Structures
1.
Amino acid sequence: MAEKEIFLYKADVLRRRAEAKTAMMAENMELISPEETRRMLYELRLHKIELEMQNEEMVAAQARYLALYDQAPVGYFTLSEQGLFLEANNRHDRAAAGYRT
């Protein structure tokens, strides 16, 4: 399964779990006043903006991590659980380029 497919699968599973929890907490929407509806809509919009800001921070942190990984003075490898090489940083790439068989 490709990385993007895994991400989409996990997002779909998370969505279904959230929908199930929402169904368990379902309220009779007719009993909610217009004022309460406006307040909840405001809270949802606010929460959405907070999540977007957290996502921006997470993307920036990921970029910093990747830069540290790639520019490390030693060779790093990322291995799968089965011990297969998934990724190597730039130091390893430079060392491998000088290696002759």
2.
Amino acid sequence: MHVELQERDACVCLAQVYHPCVLLTKKRYVGYMYETPKQAAPVFDAKGIETVRRDTCSAVAKMLERSLRILFSSKDVSQVSLPSTSPFAPCLKILRRCCPT
């Protein structure tokens, strides 16, 4: 029995590239997604984290997404605003008065 191997060009196609990104666990990640090499502006993509889950408070989801966008665009953790300077600061003050730790 004689087997001939044929040489072929292999083409590897990438579906998506994430940069920067955060991988929390399997199927839980967030980052800026690029789908083509010529794509100039990235798309914010989140899977399985609190920004896209339906069982999460919408205020938490919005605050987390805003913080992640700031972190990804500036690449500086100190640029992410503290809860005292966020738009949710009045709510946090009320919660601290009602539910002291």
3.
Amino acid sequence: MNRERALKVVMVLVGLLFSAGIYPMTMILWQRNQSQYGDAMMLSLYFTLGIFLLLAVRNPSANASLIAFAAWSSFAHGAVMAVLAFQILVVSTRYLFMQARQFHFLSARTILR
């Protein structure tokens, strides 16, 4: 009984969190910020998933596939974002080293004059 109750609490929390994505999604669309349309698309999927998770709280055993989809899709999204974050970190680190090298070169050139 405790396990099912814990599952219901987690489903409500995740459902509310995902459903809260409606606000930033509508702001992106309202302001017509085309550079963030991809974010709005993802938020619309999470908003919909949040609503269905809130509906599934009544009978979690009957909605096991929805719960599994929510868990695995969130895991897959997190994995993709981790790879992208690492790639951005590598690129920004290279840029930082290039800037530092250029700064040292210009400093040495200024000192040697």
4.
Amino acid sequence: MALARDVVDALLVEGRSHREVARAHAVSKSWVAKAIHGSEKVDMRRSRAPVHVPPETLRETEEASVPIRDELTRSSLRWNSAGTSSPATRSLCGL
């Protein structure tokens, strides 16, 4: 909120125009107007960093799941190479 306070001071105390203050503080004129009127809609510059960073998959989980995934991939390839649909496709179709 220090920026909003600086903007208000520049306008009221120094008597500068909205355009001058906006240019000096690298904000829009509408932002300056909202700051003057005490609007709570004045957005301060926010970080673009993600709010949540999911944790990395645990090594044990990865070591356990990779062989299962590889086996499922191989069995799917066997089904498809025989000219038939995979078990997953058949169960989705209700056959």
